[in-house]
């Protein structure tokens, strides 16, 4: 493996972003192209799998061409191909996987399977070189998971949501409040005008001793607060409720739960570092809380750049380099499969 120019191409199609990225020697981003499908799904209030898959099929080859053009390289310059093959929507994953297999076969290059949830943590290495071991927290629309990470390729799940993911809860609460989709950015903006102590929403599983999460009860508590126990069809706005206060109090409940569970994991594993990843990490209230609690506890905190929080292929390309460097081997391209689950 030539240190001076080992270029990994990453492909990410796990949900509703079609992305291709190029990373040189595992650290230098040379191309990062992401096409979001949010406008396609907004009218439905969430991701529609069939629409997502069709959009991936239509856009992935034009995005590949654009990526190569932006980087001013040829396909023959690529040293390895990495692809998200888990977790995600099976149909969406198969689009990226088919393109990755074809490229690896045509170029006779290694094909590396990447767990895109783990890659959300590893992408921090492009900002600040990670030290191991650490506690990793991935918070996104589909996942809220705690990891014990001993090396760039060793990830052990030590906690996960038992129902809704935190990002999913943001979307559902935004729907209850009739704020639109996606819910995360809208609730964050609205919460800036509210009082986070106005309403005491519940914190799921905070005191049960486990490292698992639960946000379904919080979502239901917001629903009942807005529409009553019979969940009437009356609009929250027509009920005369203070929407900014609801958003701020809900957001505080999520952030508080995430921070407490993560610190619990830190104490349990005697860790000296915390690494965050996933789309919800764009939330500034969450970033500030983790900066504060980690500083107070004397724990090193790694936060990804906001543009690298949501699904992207740069994280896939970077982890491809790390996995190839460690294992010096790759799976036969025709036998690699896609999986909806993280493990």
Could you explain the architecture of this structure?
The protein is of the alpha/beta class. It has two domains: 7-124 and 309-335, 2-Layer Sandwich (Nucleotidyltransferase, domain 5); 129-303, ATPase, nucleotide binding domain (Nucleotidyltransferase, domain 5, 2-Layer Sandwich). Helix content is 41%, strand content 19%. It has ten helices and ten strands. It has helices at residues 38-42, 49-71, 90-107, 116-122, 166-176, 183-191, 216-227, 243-269, 284-297, 314-327, and strands at residues 7-12, 17-24, 28-36, 80-86, 111-115, 134-139, 144-151, 154-160, 273-277, 300-302. The strands form two sheets. Strands 3-2-1-4-5 form a five-stranded mixed β-sheet, sandwiched between helices. Helix 9 links the parallel strand 9 (273-277) and strand 10 (300-302). Helix 4 packs across helix 10, helix 5 (166-176) runs antiparallel to helix 8 (243-269) and helix 6 crosses helix 8 (243-269). The longest helix has 27 residues, at 243-269. The chain is globular, with a radius of gyration of 20 Å. 48% of the residues are buried.
Short description:
The chain is α/β, with parallel strands linked by helices and 343 residues long. The protein contains ten helices and ten strands. Helices cover 41% and strands 19% of the residues.
């Amino acid at each position: 493996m030539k240190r001076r120019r080992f270029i990994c191409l990453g492909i990410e199609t796990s949900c509703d972003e079609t992305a291709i990225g190029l990373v040189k020697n595992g650290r230098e981003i040379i191309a990062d192209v992401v096409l979001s499908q949010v406008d396609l799904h907004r009218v439905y209030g969430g991701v529609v799998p069939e629409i997502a898959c069709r959009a991936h099929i239509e856009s992935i080859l034009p995005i590949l061409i654009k990526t190569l053009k932006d980087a001013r390289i040829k396909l023959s310059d690529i040293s390895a191909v990495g692809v998200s093959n888990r977790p995600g929507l099976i149909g969406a994953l198969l689009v990226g996987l088919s393109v990755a297999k074809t490229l690896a076969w045509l170029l006779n290059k290694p094909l590396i399977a990447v767990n895109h949830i783990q890659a959300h943590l590893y992408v921090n290495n492009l900002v600040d070189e990670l030290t191991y071991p650490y506690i990793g927290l991935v918070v996104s629309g589909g996942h809220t998971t705690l990891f014990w990470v001993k090396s760039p390729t060793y990830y052990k799940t030590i906690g996960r949501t038992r129902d809704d993911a935190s990002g999913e809860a943001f979307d559902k609460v935004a729907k209850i409040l009739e704020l639109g989709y996606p819910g995360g950015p809208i609730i964050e903006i609205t919460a800036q005008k509210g009082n986070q102590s106005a309403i005491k929403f519940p914190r799921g599983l905070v005191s049960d001793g486990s490292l698992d999460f639960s946000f379904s009860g919080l979502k239901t508590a917001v629903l009942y607060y807005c529409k009553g126990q019979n969940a009437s069809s009356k609009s929250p706005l027509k009920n005369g409720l203070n929407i900014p206060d609801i958003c701020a109090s809900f957001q505080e409940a999520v952030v508080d739960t995430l921070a407490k569970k993560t610190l619990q994991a830190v104490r349990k594993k005697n860790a000296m570092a915390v690494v965050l990843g996933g789309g919800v990490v764009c939330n500034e209230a969450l970033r500030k809380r983790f900066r504060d609690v980690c500083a107070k506890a004397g724990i090193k905190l790694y936060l990804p750049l906001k543009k690298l929080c949501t699904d992207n292929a740069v994280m896939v390309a970077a982890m491809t380099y790390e996995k190839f460097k460690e294992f010096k081997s790759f799976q036969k391209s025709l036998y690699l499969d896609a999986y909806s689950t993280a493990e």
